[in-house]
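Ops channel
N.P.: pipeline sanity check, posting one input/output pair.
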């Protein structure tokens, strides 16, 4: 069943190019326009949406954080991302013009389900992005956009995460197309970039030998930090979550810009820090800001493990290790940058002799509040 892999998680990491490709499949017409006719929410309602609230837990919430950057950029609609259990127990400002997007691999997470009910009681429309057919959350939502990652067995989410991010891109592009924020050829151009991602994810997997080696050497590590900016920030948080849940190592993800507001005090000689570097071809000074963050922590003795785009030579002088990933548009890059972090956590936990697929204290779907 594991197809020759040591764990389901390792297999599911390798399934990721398919998970993304299958989630994209069949969602465009012959003219290349997006058709999400499964999203049974009236087009007039979607045109009138003035706010999107993403509700989810854990890894699914990090997919929501990535979605925020993409949807706000493409659609100019404000997007909030909230942990479902926090949303549920405050008095959220949502109404008929709010689109609530509930993201869940299992479709059974009780916290997310309760938040869906709460949102609908306030009159919001709820669109579920779910991987498991026939599960409860889609049944209780106004519409569902399925991710096609296939069954995910390992407790740690990997391929569902990439499929969730992909589905939110489709949603964002669909809304942009519907509301006229983007011309059809602009949407088609992003879709073409998106269709190129499965091959690039495959390349990251093919190159993962070095990150596996480093992970095995680091089996005794006590703490690892993860830094990122922009879409690299949720990637950093996801990298930290994977390491906590699989390897029981203290790990934290930070927005790189926060360093000088506190976390830099944690840096002492030898502290391993993963840094997710944005594309140097991307926006403004984003890249150079992250490079100076690497310099700052390196100067204080951090061991810098850098994830950067092919051709980015600027990071080399300050990196103890660089894991290069193929070039991609900034907003789509999380689909690549997170893969070495998944591999790192999986390999390190395996090296520690831990049960990668069934980490202690965790369940695959959390059906209690
Ligand atoms: O099934 P869901 O996507 O609703 O689950 C949400 C979280 O419980 C889940 O992502 C959890 O954080 C994973 N163990 C992360 O690897």
């Amino acid at each position: 069943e594991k197809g020759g892999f040591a764990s389901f998680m390792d297999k599911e990491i390798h399934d990721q190019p398919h998970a993304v490709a299958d989630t994209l499949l069949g969602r465009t017409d012959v003219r290349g326009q997006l058709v999400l006719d499964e999203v049974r929410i009236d087009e007039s309602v979607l045109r009138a949406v003035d706010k999107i609230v993403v509700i989810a837990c854990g890894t699914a919430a990090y997919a929501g954080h990535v979605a925020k950057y993409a949807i706000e950029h493409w659609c100019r609609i404000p997007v909030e991302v909230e942990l479902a259990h926090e949303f549920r127990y405050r008095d959220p400002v949502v109404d008929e013009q709010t689109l609530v997007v509930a993201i869940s691999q299992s479709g059974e997470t009780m916290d997310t389900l309760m938040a869906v009910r709460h949102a609908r009681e306030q009159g919001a429309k709820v669109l579920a992005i779910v991987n498991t057919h026939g599960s409860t959350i889609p049944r209780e939502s106004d519409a569902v956009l399925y991710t096609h990652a296939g069954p995910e067995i390992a407790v740690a989410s990997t391929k569902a995460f990439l499929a969730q991010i992909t589905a939110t891109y489709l949603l964002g592009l669909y809304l942009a197309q519907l509301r006229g924020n983007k011309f059809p050829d602009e949407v088609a151009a992003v879709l073409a970039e998106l269709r190129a991602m499965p091959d690039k994810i495959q390349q990251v997997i093919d190159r993962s030998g070095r990150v596996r080696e480093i992970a095995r050497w680091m089996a005794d590590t006590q703490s690892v930090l993860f830094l990122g900016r922009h879409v690299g920030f949720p990637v950093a948080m996801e990298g930290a979550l994977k390491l906590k849940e699989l390897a029981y190592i203290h790990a934290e993800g930070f927005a790189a810009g926060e360093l000088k507001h506190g976390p830099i005090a944690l840096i002492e000689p030898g502290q391993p820090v993963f840094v997710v570097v944005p594309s140097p071809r991307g926006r403004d000074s984003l890249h150079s800001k992250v490079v100076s963050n690497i310099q700052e922590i390196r100067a204080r003795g951090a061991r810098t493990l850098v994830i950067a785009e092919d051709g980015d030579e600027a990071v080399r002088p300050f990196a103890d290790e660089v894991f290069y990933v193929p070039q991609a548009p900034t907003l789509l890059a999380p689909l690549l940058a997170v893969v070495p972090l998944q591999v790192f956590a999986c390999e390190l936990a395996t090296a520690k002799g831990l049960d990668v697929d069934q980490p202690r204290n965790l369940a695959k779907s959390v059906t209690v509040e």
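N.P.: looks fine end to end. The beta strands are 51-56, 79-83, 98-104, 125-130, 143-146, 223-228, 250-255, 272-276, 303-309, 321-325.
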